[in-house]
Every structure is written in C-alpha cells, then in structure tokens.
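User: quick one, sequence for these tokens?
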C-alpha cells in the first residue's frame, strides 16, 4: 500500500472536489464528488469523504472507494510517477508499505506556496510583466493602495503553479524575527464560480497574527483586525485571519504571540456595524466578553465597509490611531452604541 502525505491529498481534495469543507470535530473532509458529480444534488450535498486516519476516500453516491493515491490519479489525470514528482517538489516524504494505523509525517511545509513570485521585486515583476495574473495582482495592490499602506508587509506574492493558491494574491504573515510562518491568499479574478473562497489559508499550519513584525513599541496600543488588508492601514495593526463563531477568538499560537503585548491596550476593529450585520453580531459578542471595540461613527459607517474602503475613498495611506482610540468603547457604552445602530436597521 502506498500512502501520500495528508497535506498533499487535502490540496488535491480542495482543487478537484466541489465545495470542499473540513469537519474539525472528527478531522475528516467532504466535498461534492468530482467522479459522479452527484447528479441533481451537486451543490446542495457533499457525499464524497476523505478520512485521513483510514487513508481512504469514498463517495456515498456512486460508491467509489479507494486510497487517496488512486483518487488523485482518477480525478486529476496524473500518473503515479507524476504524483511522486509533485510530492517531491513540495519536499514531502513519500511513505510506502505502511501497516500502522498512525502515519508518521516526514515532510516540511514550505514557507510560501510553490514558485511564489515576489510582487515587490522589480526584477521578478519585469520578467512576468505580460502575465495576466501578475497584472491583475499588481492592479489590485495599487487600486486598493496596498503598495503605500503604512503597515504593509515586506513582500506580497502570487503563484502560477501552486495547487491550492494558484492565481491568487498571497499575503505573508511574519513572526517577530521577520520569518514567514503563515500566509493567506486572496482571489483576484472573477471566475464566476462561487466555490472559490475569497480567502484561503495555508494548509496544515496554525493561524498566526499578521503584523507583529511591524509593531511600534512607542505606541501602547495594538489594533486587532479580522483580515490583514485592513490591518495594513494603521500602525500596530494586527490581523487574526478571521474570528470563529465560538468563544475563542485566537488560536493557541496567536495567544502565545499576544503575550508579547500583554501591557498594551487592545482594541478590536471590525467592518462597519452599520452595513455589515455579521460585524454587528461579532461586536456584540466581543463587548460581552469585556473587549474594547472600535464603533464606526455614523458619518463613515453608513457608506464605508472597512478601513481599506476609507483609504480608497479619501486617498489615504493610513488611518490615525487617535481616530480609532477616540471611537472605541467597552461593554456598557459600546452596547448603547449598538442599540442606536440597530434602530437604523429597522428604519
């Protein structure tokens, strides 16, 4: 029996499966089956399952069942040797003739996606200047003023070959020593396929905080954003790469990183509560947890969704930290602000 690394299988599962998702409770994955297409239920159900601990992929609709290696061969058209070569490019270890139920992982995940192109490197940009993906990434960077943002990363990337993050803008998350330890990618093309997520995170890696390598020690505040692009437009902006629906706002790694700033005042900055109901709900949750939250003033909040929108609308490269501090509140006052906003929803 031949076993290919779990991360490689997941990448292929997300590439070829329809609307893939992960079940974090039993550590399995499911998608719409790319083999049988599941008939009229495609899009409404996910009947193809990948169970890593059993080294098995099977479909409840068509009955297809075998190893992930056979599944990748079937849905991708790659040969056995093609797959081995791809695994080698990623520096995965290839495990053969394994009989134990627990598989030892003998690979290292690369810091960046395959063949990453540095969009802040003039020589690399010149070489790829006629490539449509590179041009689309550069246009998004300039249109959204990311290239002049006060808290932008040292580099932004794209990849033309990566199995998961191909043709997307790749945003690196550095640690305090300027080493890339995590990344997210953002779509840049309008494909017409709703199955392609706007943001995708590095597989097999714990979420880190964006921006900790740029923190200014003279400012006794850190500002917590969901997404890295909005965090780029203020000093000491940190991004958590999404807030979960549960009670925990941070991963274990992020909790460890935040210990560096235990004496800093932390203020959450979400999308406008005036026009984003999800942000409204998350704000209420954070206030209940005793957090301090930036409340969008009505003047801006009714027309602008986030800090990136504000910088584009007013030709800014930075949102003043004083503006955030002056409009941030804790539970009682913040809740009263939400009541005012809720009235606007009803009107």
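Assistant:
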């Amino acid at each position: 029996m031949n076993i290919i690394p779990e991360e490689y299988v997941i990448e292929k599962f997300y590439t070829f499966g329809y609307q893939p998702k992960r079940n974090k409770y039993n550590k399995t994955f499911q998608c719409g089956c790319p083999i049988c297409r599941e008939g009229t239920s495609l899009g409404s159900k996910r009947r193809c399952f990948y169970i890593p601990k059993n080294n098995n992929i099977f479909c409840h609709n068509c009955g297809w069942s075998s190893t992930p290696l056979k599944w990748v061969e079937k849905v991708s058209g790659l040969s056995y040797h093609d797959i081995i070569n791809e695994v080698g490019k990623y520096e995965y270890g290839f495990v053969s003739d394994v009989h134990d139920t627990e598989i030892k992982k003998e690979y290292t995940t690369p810091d960046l996606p395959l063949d990453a192109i540095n969009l802040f490197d003039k020589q690399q940009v010149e070489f790829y200047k006629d490539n449509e993906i590179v041009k689309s990434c550069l246009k998004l960077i300039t249109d959204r003023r990311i290239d002049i943002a006060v808290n932008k990363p040292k580099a932004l990337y794209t990849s033309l070959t990566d199995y998961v993050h191909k043709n997307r803008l790749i945003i690196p998350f550095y640690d305090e020593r300027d080493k890339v330890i995590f990344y997210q990618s953002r779509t840049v093309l309008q494909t017409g396929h709703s199955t392609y997520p706007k943001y995708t995170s590095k597989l097999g890696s714990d979420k880190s905080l964006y921006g900790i390598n740029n923190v200014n020690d003279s400012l006794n505040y850190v500002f917590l954003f969901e997404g890295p692009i909005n965090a780029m437009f203020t000093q000491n902006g940190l991004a958590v790469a999404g807030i979960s629906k549960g009670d925990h706002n941070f991963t274990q790694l992020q909790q460890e990183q935040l210990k560096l700033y235990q004496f800093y005042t932390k203020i959450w900055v979400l999308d406008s509560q005036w026009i984003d109901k999800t942000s409204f709900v998350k704000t209420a949750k954070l206030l209940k947890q005793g957090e301090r939250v930036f409340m969008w003033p009505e003047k801006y909040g009714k027309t602008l969704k986030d800090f990136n929108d504000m910088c584009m609308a007013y030709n800014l490269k930075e949102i003043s930290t004083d503006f955030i501090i002056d409009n941030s509140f804790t539970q009682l006052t913040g809740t009263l602000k939400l009541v005012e906003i809720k009235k606007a929803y009803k009107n």
